[in-house]
UniProtKB/TrEMBL annotation:
Gene3D superfamilies registered for this protein in UniProt: Helix-hairpin-Helix base-excision DNA repair enzymes (C-terminal), Hypothetical protein, domain 2, Nucleoside Triphosphate Pyrophosphohydrolase
Keyword DNA damage tagged: yes
UniProt-recorded Gene Ontology molecular function terms: 4 iron, 4 sulfur cluster binding; 8-oxo-7,8-dihydroguanine DNA N-glycosylase activity; adenine/guanine mispair binding; metal ion binding; oxidized purine DNA binding; purine-specific mismatch base pair DNA N-glycosylase activity
Organism, scientific name: Ponticoccus litoralis
Swiss-Prot/TrEMBL cofactor(s): [4Fe-4S] cluster
Family of the protein in this entry: Belongs to the Nth/MutY family.
One Pfam family named in its UniProt record: NUDIX_4
Protein name per its UniProtKB record: Adenine DNA glycosylase
SUPFAM superfamilies to which the protein is assigned, alphabetical: DNA-glycosylase, Nudix
Length: 338
DNA sequence: TAGACGTGGGG
DNA sequence: TCCCCAAGTCT
C-alpha cells in the first residue's frame, strides 16, 4: 500500500500502479491505515487489476468491504471500476479533470491519484494537509471556512517534481508527527518555519466548528435460524445507511419502533441490546431470535444456507447482533441461563 | 450547502 | 461505560 510503504520504498521515477493507488486512496477516505491494511491486501490478491472488480459480483465486493464502513465507497468502487474497464479500456485516465468525473473520486482522491500514479503536480489536500498548513501558518480561521486558504498554502508548497512523493510525505508528516493531539514537534523537520510552534498554538489548530450531539435511536433485529442451520437475511437497498449490504431483517430505527417480524415464529428477545454508533446517531438494537421449521416461507428476506453464510460478510452493527445471539446460544447450551 | 454516511481506538 | 475523534464524497 503506497501510503504505508512510503516514498522511500520505491525507486525514484518508478510509477506505482494506478489501480492500487486509486484503491488505497478510496479505502483511506476517513479511515486509518491500520484499518485498511488487511482489506487492501485481500482486495488486491483477489482482484489484482481494475478489470477484476469490474466483472465481479456486487455481493462479493460488498462482502469483502464489510466492516470497513462508508459502504457508498464500495458501491462507487464497483461503478468506477466498470467505467474504467468499459469506457477507458481498463486504463485509469491520467487527467485530473477526467479522474474527477469517476464515481467516488472527489477533489482529494483525483489529486492524489494524479500526483502519486501519474506524476502530475496537483494540489493534494486531505485532513492531514489541512492540519499541517494551519499550523505552519498559525491559521486560526475554523474549518471548513479556512479550506480555500489552506488549499492556497498547500498549492504554494507543492513542488513541480516528484509531487507524489511530496504529497505522501506531507500526509505522513500529519499522520505521524504533526498529529491532531500532542504533536511531536521535537521530531518535526519543519519546526523552524512553523508559525504555530513559534506562537505555541499548534495543539489547538486547526480550529473546527463545534460538533452536534448524536441522538439515540432504537430498533429490533430479527435473527431467524432454520432447523437446518440456514439464516434469514436481507439485502439492504442501495441507497441510504448500510446500502447494498447484507443484514438482519428488522424494524425501522427511531423513537419507539413497531414490531416487524420477517417470518411467523416464536420470537424471544435477548437480555442485552446490541449497541452501535453511526456517524450521526447512536443505535440500541433489541435482538430477537427464533427457530423456524423447514417448510415455512419468510415474508421478507431469504434463507442463506449455513455453509454460504459468514458473519464477516456483515456490516459491524449486524455482526454485533449476531455475536450477541451466538453468545446467548452458547450460554444456554452450557446451562448458564434458563 | 449542510447533512448523510461507519468504524475502531483513545481518554 | 460512554464521548470524542480521524486519511472525503455525494446530494
Amino acid at each position: 500500500m503506497p501510503r504505508r510503504t512510503g516514498p522511500r520504498a520505491r525507486a525514484a521515477g518508478v510509477r506505482p500502479d494506478p489501480y492500487r493507488v486509486w484503491l488505497s486512496e478510496i479505502m483511506l477516505q476517513q479511515t486509518t491505515v491500520a484499518a485498511v491494511k488487511s482489506y487492501f491486501t485481500a482486495f488486491t490478491e483477489r482482484w489484482p487489476t481494475v478489470t477484476a472488480p469490474a466483472s465481479a459480483r456486487d455481493e462479493d465486493v460488498m462482502a469483502a468491504w464489510a466492516g470497513l464502513g462508508y459502504y457508498a465507497r464500495a458501491r462507487n468502487l464497483l461503478k468506477c471500476a466498470r467505467v474504467v474497464a468499459g469506457d477507458y479500456g481498463g486504463q485509469f485516465p491520467q487527467d485530473h479533470a477526467t479522474l474527477l468525473t469517476l464515481p467516488g473520486v472527489g477533489r482529494y482522491t483525483a489529486a492524489a491519484v494524479a500526483a502519486i500514479a501519474f506524476d502530475d503536480p496537483q494540489v493534494v489536500v486531505d485532513g492531514n494537509v489541512e492540519r499541517v498548513m494551519a499550523r505552519l501558518h498559525d491559521e486560526h480561521t475554523p474549518l471548513p471556512q479556512a479550506k480555500p486558504l489552506l488549499t492556497d498554502y498547500a498549492a504554494a508548497l507543492t513542488p513541480p517534481t516528484r509531487p507524489g512523493d511530496y504529497a505522501q510525505a506531507v500526509m505522513d508528516l500529519g499522520a505521524t508527527i504533526c498529529t491532531p493531539k500532542r504533536p511531536a514537534c521535537g521530531l518535526c523537520p519543519r519546526r523552524a518555519p512553523c508559525a504555530a510552534w513559534a506562537a505555541g498554538t499548534m495543539a489547538e489548530l486547526p480550529k473546527k466548528a463545534p460538533k452536534k450531539r448524536k441522538p439515540t435511536r432504537h430498533g429490533i433485529a430479527y435473527l431467524a435460524r432454520r432447523v437446518d442451520g440456514a439464516w434469514l437475511l436481507e439485502r439492504r437497498p442501495d441507497k441510504g445507511l448500510l446500502g447494498g449490504m447484507l443484514g438482519w431483517p428488522g424494524s425501522d430505527w427511531g423513537e419507539d419502533p413497531a414490531e416487524a417480524p420477517p417470518i411467523r415464529a416464536e420470537w424471544r428477545a435477548l437480555g442485552e441490546e446490541a449497541r452501535h454508533t453511526f456517524t450521526h446517531f447512536h443505535l440500541r438494537l433489541t435482538v430477537k431470535t427464533a427457530l423456524v421449521p423447514m417448510e415455512r416461507a419468510p415474508d421478507r428476506g431469504d434463507f442463506i444456507e449455513a455453509p454460504d453464510f459468514s458473519p464477516a460478510d456483515l456490516p459491524t452493527v449486524m455482526r454485533k447482533a449476531f455475536d450477541l445471539a451466538q453468545g446467548a446460544l452458547e450460554q444456554a447450551a452450557l446451562g448458564w441461563s434458563a
